[in-house]
Specification:
Layout: H1 2-28, E1 33-50, E2 53-57, E3 69-83, H2 102-130, E4 132-135, E5 144-155, H3 160-164, E6 171-175, E7 178-179, H4 183-191, E8 200-206, E9 209-215, E10 218-220, E11 225-227, E12 230-239, H5 242-272, H6 283-294, H7 298-316, H8 324-337, H9 343-383
Helix pairs in contact: 1-2, 1-6, 1-7, 2-5, 2-7, 2-8, 5-7, 6-9
Length: 386
């Protein structure tokens, strides 16, 4: 249950950071925020400043106050900001979103995903300043490399390596008693001991502790030869001088963003031709996978949070009704037509889009429960000592 809680905390923090971007820029442009909520409705309680004094707002109170209502809500999945005019009302009021010009509305809508990108850039830049584990191949000459090691990057499922207990992230220290200097040397030694049925003694380092394991090579159909079924790489702790770390962090953010965009459209394209290239995971699936990430250490969790933030940014700015990208698309249509859209019609389109998104999320969640239900149940049983 701990991985699910960590995932929930990460997701909530990212969504709140996103909504804070909308709120800050809206207020700078003079748009009133009717409510800023922590979590999603139904409301548990709220507070609003009335004539210099804080007043408690009940869960059924829908009064429009002069100031922002700050609320705590029952569904702990981030938060929301409700701006005046976003539902198509109060278009003539100067503090309404609808009353602002096109570039101001677009900037307010883009502020959320900008905060998500900023978060990722800060995480990557900070990591490069203090030093993070990374593959050493292709590093620029300005990189400062310490603690070089040979690590397992991938273990083929059901392979000899998997049966021996090897895991991604393990550091290979010796093969048959010979000290490992780099990945190429490790591969060469392993290839010298690929006879089926012959045991190989490996000394590995995992979580700072040394372990000895016995592995027995098996035939690998993918390679058409015997082997263990591991992918190795030279890794090290890599950092950059502070003035260069920021540039590397921004570059890493751009690289991951592009990977997410191409991966997303690749997935959509494969669905159209009836050959899905990957299984789609929703909140439940990601929460289960967080368990493996937490086991890899603090940097892995921070990197996961940064990549999740970029995923939220990319998906949220797609031209889909109810998302920021869908709303921004209406702003662009308005600019092209040089005529204001019908606020109520636009609000209705977004409501339909929101309902559709909720249905999709529910369907994906049901798929996750079918796929990971056993794992989740074991976690619940373990939590209560069953």
């Amino acid at each position: 249950m701990l991985p699910a809680l960590i995932f929930l905390l990460i997701l909530s923090a990212l969504v709140l950071f996103h909504e804070l971007g909308h709120y800050v820029l809206a207020r700078l442009f003079g748009v009133k925020a009717d409510e800023f909520g922590f979590g999603f409705p139904p409301r548990a309680l709220g507070f609003v400043n009335v004539d210099g004094k804080w007043k408690r707002v009940g869960r059924t109170d829908r009064t429009r106050y002069a100031n922002t209502v700050w609320s705590l809500n029952w569904l702990p999945l981030g938060g929301f900001v409700r701006l005046k005019g976003e539902a198509g009302e109060d278009g003539k009021d100067p503090d309404s979103l609808l009353a602002k010009n096109g570039w101001q509305k677009f900037a307010i809508l883009a502020a959320g995903v900008t905060m998500n990108w900023l978060f990722a850039a800060v995480v990557f830049s900070t990591g490069f300043m203090i030093g993070v584990p990374a593959v050493t191949e292709g590093l620029p000459p300005t990189a400062i490399v310490t603690d070089p090691r040979v690590q397992i990057m991938e273990v083929v499922p059901s392979s000899a390596a998997a049966k021996a207990g090897l895991k991604a992230g393990d550091e290979i220290v010796t093969v048959e008693g010979q000290r490992i200097t780099d990945a190429a040397a490790a591969q060469s030694l392993l290839q010298q001991h690929t006879k089926v049925g012959e045991e190989i003694t490996l000394e590995i380092k995992r979580d700072g502790k040394m372990e000895a394991l016995l592995a027995m090579p098996e035939y690998l159909a993918a390679l058409d030869r015997p082997g263990l079924g591991v992918a190795l790489a030279d890794t090290a702790t890599v950092r950059f001088p502070a003035w260069l770390a920021v540039g590397e962090g921004i570059t890493m953010t751009a690289r991951y963003t592009w990977m997410i965009i191409t991966g997303f459209f690749g997935l959509i394209g494969s669905l159209f031709i009836g050959k899905p290239s990957a299984e789609l995971s929703g909140p439940v699936g990601i929460a289960v996978m967080t368990g493996g990430i937490v086991a890899q250490g603090k940097w892995a969790v921070a990197q996961f949070a940064a990549i999740l933030s970029l995923n939220l940014a990319v998906i949220n700015f797609l031209p889909i009704p109810a998302l920021d990208g869908g709303r921004a698309t209406f702003v662009l249509i308005e600019a092209i037509r040089r005529k204001k859209n019908n606020g109520r019609t636009e609000a209705m389109v977004h409501q339909i889009g929101f309902i559709t998104l909720i249905i999709i999320v529910l369907l994906v969640t049901l798929q996750d429960l079918r796929r990971y239900g056993g794992t989740i149940w074991q976690g619940i049983v373990g939590l209560f000592g069953g």
